[in-house]
Structure prediction request, 388 residues.
Amino acid sequence: MSSPLTNLLPVRMRSQVDALLEAVSVFTHVRDPKVLAALGPSGVRGLLLHRGKQGVPTHMPATHTAYFDWTYPNDQPEMAELYRRAKEGQWNGDSLPWHTNVDPLDPNVPLLPEEFVSYETLSNFGIKLSAEKRRELNYCMCTWMLSQFLHGEQGALFAAAQVTEAVQFFDGKLYGATQVMDEGRHVEVFNRYLDTKLNKLYVINDNLFVIIDSLMSDSRWDMKFLGMQIMVEGLALGAFGTLYRQTKEPLLKELLKMVIQDEARHVHYGVCALREHFHHHITEREREEREDWAFEVALLMRNRFMAYEVYEEWFEGLISREQWRTFVEQSPGMQQFRTVMFSRLVPNLREIGLLTKRIMPHYDRAGLMQYFGGLAADRVTAAELLAA
Ligand SMILES: [Fe+2]
Ligand SMILES: [Fe+2]
Prediction:
């Protein structure tokens, strides 16, 4: 992002120019005008106007058609089975071991391993942190991630409610009711953990805001579904699993384990519903539009999930945003996050028919085709997700 011209600007202004250029670059390469029309207004609201950071409330217009069926068909046996499993899998957020004493700075029970971030990269940029400060930065990175999980869960709660109204599969509606309950519980437990154990909450990241805004305001149920069940949930599932395996904090570990079991059903439902819908109920042109949209959102998430909120709190004025990006990209924990997230997402896109030969070269250029052969969510059990 830096150029000889921007390098002449004072550091803070350079930072603002970098953010602006980055926002513009997200959308200037989008090839499909329909995708641009679907994502563009959300991009302006999220990346340029920073609507997610303007306090309470945030209003998003949501219009979709509720689909009624007065004959109550048993139309989707796989969804009916998921509904049965979801009823049996319900749990009470109060039952987690909330009595656990959590000290986020305790070196014996680290929230994240010390090697999660690359202190070497930071020190190459002239930033040397004491052991105490390193623990504090790790705590902030972990809190930032959990805050984004919580904001994503709020989006999932509303999206699940909307999709339950709008979907045409009756077994899907019953299943959807359990997901609404699940997402409510996820909001409850992440919020409680942040509020009572970590005592900190970061605002929503602009890129996550763009995605949530885009799928909330899109009237097409399958776009909401694709955005939430496949993209946001699929990536979150990978992120939850990585954090579950990395953290040594027992309450967080237990919380994530329970949430992952629910999320595995959600992504399975997403694959099941969209595979049917994309293969049998939409035109080729509509499928292509969804294929392009999914690719742009994948890029948005891969390239832009950069924890700038932590940068602004800690390092703005000390290092440039470009240096911060290098630091995040070179941090082993963040690299692992990206790898696991996309190893979950890419096979699901293949399974629902959104990763055809037409788009493959683009995934290849983005370095994501290595995950193509993996198992989709309908074939992976929660136990395998926890062990992987
Ligand atoms: Fe959730
Ligand atoms: Fe979910």
